[in-house]
């Protein structure tokens, strides 16, 4: 009996020891909520919503980190934690500030089997500062603003446009920090004076004076009623042109005055500035206009080929330097007709002559019925004159009275 009792006690002791050694330590947890603190008072009020999809970071007693994400109710939990010292923090998202707790990191000491609840975070959304980009659209000839010009603002996520006002100004408002592209429209009747697109970076301040300047494409007016030929559309920036007019300079003053027209069919040559060899050649049109196109930047020599019966009244040679894409206009040449001086035998004064419509010079003295020139006494002059086909008066002393004054 005593032996049986001893065996039973021994068995109970072994079972107890096995039970104690096989039992695991109780685990702990940390949990809480993430809420939108709309009024920023640091308290989760009944009308304030939860914040899902926020990251919560837990630093373990050994220094390692684990993360959890709040669910649709703003709830998170870290389970199966051993006893020890922990720190808890949130990953702050852009555009938000923390209102609870005051410190960004919460220190927690967990006892075995302890569940630490309501370790929450409150955040309030802040209004982000916005800025402006502005500038002017400017007429390069007058310096005044151009109204109604389209300006476009864009970046990787947006694009918007506006028209310039009466003073040529434009403005884009409500912009966040970042890089933007500002682009102007292009028009065939204007030539840009600079780039048509500019990159602009906003860094906590407004950006001003993002200006665009364009110069109207010149169309040379003619003094006469006949309009000058319109130049072609705006050239590309890679090549330029040289143009001008050939003018009948009636008064010989070297200028294009009212009533003076262009001369057609005159040859204008574009020559090499070093060798003087002809590179291009063209003829003036019915209004006296000429043009050399598709010219790269460089120095050029322009020369007219004079025609018989004309003399230049301004330089017949011009040196022109083109920059890239430039249209050099009004490179004009002026010429006038040569009027032959009339030499009369016995050194008659030219002031006594009249000029007909064809430039022929006639004696102011009266002619007889048969074309003979009479002297001031009313009789036929002693030295009879014959008028040739060019209007010149020739001495024909030996002709009889019948042939005097006839044209040869």
Account of the protein in words:
The protein has 408 residues and is mainly beta. The protein has four domains: 28-125, Immunoglobulin-like; 131-216, Immunoglobulin-like (Sandwich), CATH 2.60.40; 240-337, Immunoglobulin-like (Sandwich), CATH 2.60.40.10; 345-395, no CATH class. It is built from one helix and 30 strands. The protein has one helix spanning 2-22; strands spanning 28-36, 55-59, 65-69, 75-81, 84-90, 96-100, 105-110, 115-116, 121-125, 131-139, 150-154, 159-163, 169-175, 178-184, 190-192, 197-202, 212-216, 240-248, 267-271, 278-283, 289-295, 298-304, 310-312, 317-322, 327-328, 333-337, 353-355, 361-363, 385-387, 393-395. Strands 1, 4, 6, 8 and 9 form a five-stranded mixed β-sheet that branches. A hairpin with a 4-residue loop joins strand 11 (150-154) and strand 12 (159-163). The radius of gyration is 51 Å and the shape is rod-shaped. The chain starts with a helix and ends in a 13-residue tail after the last strand.
């Amino acid at each position: 009996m005593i032996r049986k009792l001893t065996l039973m006690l021994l068995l109970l002791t072994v079972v107890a020891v096995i039970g104690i050694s096989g039992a695991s330590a109780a685990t702990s947890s940390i949990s809480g909520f993430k809420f939108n603190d709309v009024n920023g008072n640091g308290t989760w009020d009944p009308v304030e919503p939860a914040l899902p999809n926020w990251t919560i970071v837990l630093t373990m007693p050994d220094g390692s980190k684990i993360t959890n994400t709040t669910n649709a109710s703003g709830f998170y939990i870290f389970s199966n934690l051993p006893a020890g010292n922990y720190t808890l923090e949130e990953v702050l998202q852009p555009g938000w500030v923390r209102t609870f707790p005051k410190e960004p990191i919460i220190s927690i000491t967990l006892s075995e089997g302890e569940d630490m609840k309501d370790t929450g975070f409150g955040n309030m959304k802040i209004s982000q500062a916005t800025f402006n980009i502005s500038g002017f659209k400017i007429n390069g000839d007058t310096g005044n603003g151009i109204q109604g010009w389209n300006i476009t603002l864009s970046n990787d996520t947006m694009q918007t446009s506006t028209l310039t006002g009466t003073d040529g100004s434009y403005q884009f408002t409500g912009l966040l920090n970042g890089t933007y592209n500002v682009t102007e429209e292009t028009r065939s009747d204007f030539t840009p004076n600079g780039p048509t697109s500019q990159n602009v970076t906003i860094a906590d301040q407004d950006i001003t004076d993002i200006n665009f300047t364009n110069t109207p494409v010149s169309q040379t007016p003619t003094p006469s009623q006949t309009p000058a030929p319109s130049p072609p559309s705006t050239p590309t920036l890679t090549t330029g042109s040289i143009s001008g007019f050939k003018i009948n300079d009636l008064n010989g003053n070297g200028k294009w005055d009212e009533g003076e027209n262009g001369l057609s069919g005159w040859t204008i040559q574009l020559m090499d500035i070093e060798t003087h060899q002809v590179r291009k050649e063209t003829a003036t049109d019915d209004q006296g206009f000429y043009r050399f196109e598709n010219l790269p930047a460089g120095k050029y020599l322009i020369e007219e080929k004079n025609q018989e019966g004309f003399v230049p009244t301004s330089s017949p040679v011009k040196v022109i330097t083109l920059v890239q894409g430039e249209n050099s206009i009004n490179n004009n040449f002026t010429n006038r007709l040569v009027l032959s001086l009339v030499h009369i035998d016995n050194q008659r004064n030219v002031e006594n002559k009249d000029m007909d419509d064809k430039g022929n010079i006639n004696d102011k003295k009266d002619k007889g019925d048969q074309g003979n020139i009479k002297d001031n006494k009313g009789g036929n002059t002693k030295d009879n004159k014959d008028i040739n086909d060019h209007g010149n008066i020739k001495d024909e002393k030996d002709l009889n009275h019948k042939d005097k004054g006839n044209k040869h």
